[in-house]
Amino acid sequence: MLFHRFDDIDIPRLGLGTWQLQGDDAYRIVSKALEIGYRHIDTAAVYENEEEVGRAIAESGLKREDIFLTTKLWWKDIRDGKSAEAMDKSLDRLGTDYIDLILNHWPVPGMEIKPQVEPLAEIKSAGKARLIGVSNYTQQQLLKAVTDCPERLANIQCEYHPMLNQDPVLKTARGFDMLFTSYSPIGQGKVLANPAIKRLAEWNKKDPAQIVLRWHLQQANVAAIPRTSSEEHLKSNFDIFDFELSAEDMKTVYGLMRPDGRLIDPDWAPEWDTGTSEAA
Ligand SMILES: NC(=O)c1ccc[n+]([C@@H]2O[C@H](COP(=O)([O-])OP(=O)(O)OC[C@H]3O[C@@H](n4cnc5c(N)ncnc54)[C@H](OP(=O)(O)O)[C@@H]3O)[C@@H](O)[C@H]2O)c1
To answer: Three-state SS for 104?
Structure first.
């Protein structure tokens, strides 16, 4: 496993995403993931699976401290001044008294950044979260968050995959030695049929998802949290530590970025950054 160290805490750079996994599926996949060796699990209040994630962790036979667990506060709770309350509810559902990383899931439309990030610092001071961070913030929002938050931000989580350039936020995150977590890291499966990715998979004797996940992990400060409901994919997505993409291979993947590559763009999203290619 590769790790990013922040404030003496080692964050595994490959984790399991759990969006859209619910009920028995969520319990089964998280349990299996922990058995395979995953030690970083990503959930959110809004995914409605915190109870199953918590149960899978509790019944895994692993020590709580051996698992890096992330959850997220929904933006309407942040807007309504209920971050602390929402944190307590998540901890209750997860059946744990602390979270490793708590994130503001989205910036609140039209609200100053300061009142959005101050509650994160309070949650950390209260010992309920070891690390704090944000998700879906633009470069300018991230810079403001870093300035306005009384505690250091460890992480930003954003959509990132070979079709989407994220240079502005990536560079800012690296500047503060934060971890950048790529969500939808395999483009929700959409990048896997790309001929260039398929060719790299053949050359490296790996499958397309392994190529893309390896591309993430070979970038400084980047983690990836692929989601799957298939035990086979769960295993293959974790089997990426025995090969390396060459500089040429990395460049090929960077070359797939395109202006319309974004997949997640709800009504409440901020005005996104546009980036330039890392390879340029
Ligand atoms: N912060 C945010 O706002 C935010 C937003 C979106 C996502 N996230 C987080 O990021 C995680 C991952 O993102 P995501 O769920 O959007 O998409 P993703 O991980 O990029 O893609 C998931 C899709 O890829 C397929 N897949 C996974 N492994 C595969 C493999 N080896 N071969 C072929 N297909 C494969 C899965 O199908 P199968 O089930 O058939 O394998 C599923 O349809 C989420 O679960 C969530 O934890 C956060």
So the answer is: strand
